[in-house]
Amino acid sequence: xxxxxESGGGLVQPGMxxxxxxxxxxxxxxxxxxxxxRQAPGKGLEWVAEIRNKANNYATYxxxxxxGRFTISRDDSKxxxxxxxxxxxxxxxxxxxxTLSWELWGQxxxxxxxx
Amino acid sequence: xxxxxxxxxxxxxxGQRATISCRASQSVSISRYNLMHWYQQxxxxxxxxxxxxxxxxxxxxxxxxxxSGSGTDFTLTINPxxxxxxxxxxxxxxxxxxxxxxxxxxxxxx
Lengths: 115, 110
What we know:
The complex is a heterodimer of chains A (115) and B (110). Chain A is mainly beta and 115 residues long. Chain A is globular. Chain A has strands at 3-7, 10-12, 18-25, 34-39, 45-51, 60-62, 70-75, 80-85, 94-100, 104-105, 109-113. Chain B is mainly β. In chain B, strands 2, 6, 7, 8, 11, 12 and 13 form a 7-stranded mixed beta sheet that branches. Chain B is globular and about 35 Å long. Chain A binds chain B through residues 37, 44-47, 61, 63-64, 97, 102-108, and chain B through 1, 37, 39, 41, 45-49, 52, 58-59, 90, 92, 94, 97-104.
């Protein structure tokens, strides 16, 4: 069974940093591209970042609103994808989902940015 | 960025057909591939992939869901609508980076 589980969220002060993790199992993680998508409270979906697999040189891509502040990375040996969020802002508040090439999604983790 | 436009809500009766539309600001088709996808999201749950590349049913999705369209105009059809289908539906394009989503169509009971 394929599983994706996000962790690392919570209450974060503006300007600070937080690192999200997405722990996966049940598939050959190293073969797949992974995405982070977020959803502000009561709002729609916004793509955040993508990391490709080794065959695609682990290329990374970012949405405009997070580029330069967020970093996506992966550890194929542990089947985990990360999202390092720096210089965090109130508009970064929301549920963060990791997805396996858009086909399967984790339950999401809440990040609340507030002082 | 490619903008996807969806109607905010659609009211439908159980057992009837629901047609949800998504219009892109520019073509999302390349050759024979229509890079539009559909998701269902229920309150408090993660999105679920329903249709990929405009008309392909994702694994485990009932056949009452179908998708069609090309270029800039796409449709998700649910026929017949069941109570379990009450949710918000999002279209997403992967033709051009960044991948973008429509604002969602909330399916409601009439």
